[in-house]
Amino acid sequence: MADSNLDGESRPVPDPTKLTTDAVEAATDQIKELFTAQLKRLEDLAAVQFNAFSDKLAVAERLRLEQKSDTSVAVTAALDAAKEAVNQQAAAFAAETAKTERNVSEQLKGIRDTFGTAIAAQVTRYDDLKDRLARLESTKLGGKEADEQRHQQNAGLYALGGFVVAVIVASIAVIGFLAALKP
């Protein structure tokens, strides 16, 4: 059945325009509800993911702080061990230096005794040469023999002088060596 208008148009009963508008509004409401529900699910998912990420960051920060603490403890222990090693090395060096000083002192005493004996022997030899020279002069040997003996005596004196100089130089070298050993 159709309703007629004054202008000659007819509309069916029931009017489809109202039904269509109501159907569109109902579909729009359903779409809005679905969109709102989907948006809520996305918000919940984002919140869960954000919370999970925050938890991971917190765990990473705790691990970093633990590692920092562990590293600090390890570095402190290593430094303490290094200090102890330096102290032990210094003590060993001091003991070795004292031992070396004792050994050098004993060697110097031995060298002094050896040089003393050698010098005494050279002095005795020198005295013997002097006595021989006196005897030679008293017997007034011939010129050639006297010259030869004088040359021998002079050679002995030169040898004695060279030995004394060598002893002095050796003593200076040993004293210099000892002075270089002392810190």
Task: Walk me through the structure.
It is a single chain. With 183 residues, the chain is mostly helical. The protein has helices at residues 16-139, 143-181, and strands at 2-4, 10-12. It has one domain. Helix 1 packs antiparallel against helix 2.
Record the SSE blueprint.
Layout: E1 2-4, E2 10-12, H1 16-139, H2 143-181
Antiparallel strand pairs: 1-2
Major β-sheet annotation: 2 strands, antiparallel
Could you give the order of strands across the largest sheet? Answer: 1-2
Total helices: the number is 2
Number of separate strands: 2
How confident is the prediction overall: mean pLDDT?
83
Low-confidence stretches: none
Strand content: under 5%
- Measure the end-to-end span: 129 Å
Summarize the structure.
With 183 residues, the protein is mainly α.
Give a quick set of tags describing it.
rod-shaped; mainly alpha; two-stranded antiparallel sheet; 183 residues; 3% strand; 2 strands
